[in-house]
Write a structure and sequence with these properties.
This protein is an alpha/beta fold. Helix content is about 50%, strand content about 10%. An 8-stranded parallel sheet has the order 7-6-5-4-3-2-1-8. Helix 3 crosses helix 12, helix 4 packs across helix 13 and helix 4 packs antiparallel against helix 14. The N terminus is likely disordered.
Length: about 325
């Protein structure tokens, strides 16, 4: 069942490990806060919504092409567990799945070499367990930090939490911004906060979680995206996954275009991570189409694009099995952890 598309996906998957952004891109150093740029942000909500409405119908891929795109999507997943009842055993099982995300028989049928997910994302308390479980692989551990998900713990404790996560071995830190700075239009405070978080991360890459469902408007999303990139964010991320509204296509269009504008202005590429509510393979295909059309093929790689997800991988594996066998299997046959 070897095809050009599947072989290309296999080559892409192998060439993108290890997954850390610094392997491939000069890191975004940030820039001075420019309030003229921030205040000049505009969003045509109707146009954004029309753009999003066209995506699912116009950009449909089938058969071998779909299998190739789904294999690629797997390499861009931050496989995540952020539950209150997480245990060391669950995290170790998640890490085993991240290292072997698709059953060997399916990969063989697709003429596909070994692949892994982009990262494993856990709470700070589970970082050491994940690092130990992933020893010998190139998969980085991402830690949610700074009072995740609300970001309302004392500021010095949020900074300390980053320090402890880095010390425990996390290579990526997903921080949450203070939403109140956005809602109050206090862009200097948001910039200073993000700048210190970035500095505290050191060599670890920082993903700025905007919690877009709580920012009030798409214009605020655009402004917050620009401020975080100016302060040195390596990725901007939609959500914690704990808000009532998480990743949506309109929010993604706004954030992706902010990334495009920042790249045009500075020459530095910033990554994008939609998180929360992306659980179906067909949704992943829509997001990949959006990235390809708005940012180009360079961003279709784990060093610049990630899905924050837990159940997405199971549905993708189920779709790949259908591609190989012609039959859908029960979801329990593709357990995550």
């Amino acid at each position: 069942m070897s095809t050009t598309d599947i072989s290309a996906a296999a080559t892409d998957a192998r060439s993108t490990t290890p997954h850390l952004p610094q392997v491939h891109e000069p890191r975004n150093p940030g820039m001075a806060l420019d309030l003229d740029i921030i205040q000049g942000q505009r969003v045509n909500t109707s146009a954004v919504e029309r753009r999003c409405a066209t995506l699912p119908g116009r950009r449909s891929v089938k058969k071998d092409h779909q299998a190739a795109w789904l294999l690629k999507a797997i390499t861009m997943i931050d496989l995540t567990t952020l539950a209150g009842d997480d245990t060391a055993g669950r995290v170790r099982r998640l890490c085993a799945k991240a290292a072997h995300p698709v059953r060997a028989d399916l990969l063989e049928a697709l003429d596909m070499g070994p692949i892994t997910t982009g990262a494993v994302c856990v709470y700070h308390d589970m970082v050491e367990t994940a690092v130990e479980a992933l020893d010998g692989t190139s998969i980085p551990v991402a830690a949610v930090s700074t009072g995740f998900p609300a970001g309302l713990s004392p500021y010095h404790l949020r900074v300390k939490e980053i320090e402890e996560s880095v010390r425990a071995g996390a290579k990526e830190i997903d921080i949450v911004i203070s939403r109140r700075h956005v809602l109050a239009g206090n862009w200097q405070a948001l910039y200073d906060e993000m700048r210190e978080f970035r500095a505290t991360c050191g060599e670890a890459h920082v993903k700025a979680i905007l919690a877009t469902g709580e920012l009030g408007s798409l214009r605020n999303v655009a402004k917050a995206s620009q401020v975080c990139m100016m302060a040195g964010a390596d990725f901007i991320k939609t959500s914690t996954g704990k808000e009532s509204v998480n990743a949506t296509l309109p929010v993604s269009v706004v954030m992706i275009r902010a990334i495009r504008d920042y790249y045009a202005r500075t020459g530095y590429r910033v990554g994008y991570k939609p998180a929360g509510g992306i659980s179906k393979a067909k949704d992943a295909l829509v997001y990949l189409s959006l990235i390809k059309e708005e940012l180009g093929n360079h961003w279709l790689s784990p060093h610049l694009f990630r899905f924050g997800a837990s159940s997405l991988l199971g549905d993708i594996e189920r779709q790949l099995e259908h591609h190989v066998t012609g039959q859908y299997s029960a979801s329990w046959r593709h357990a995550i952890g």
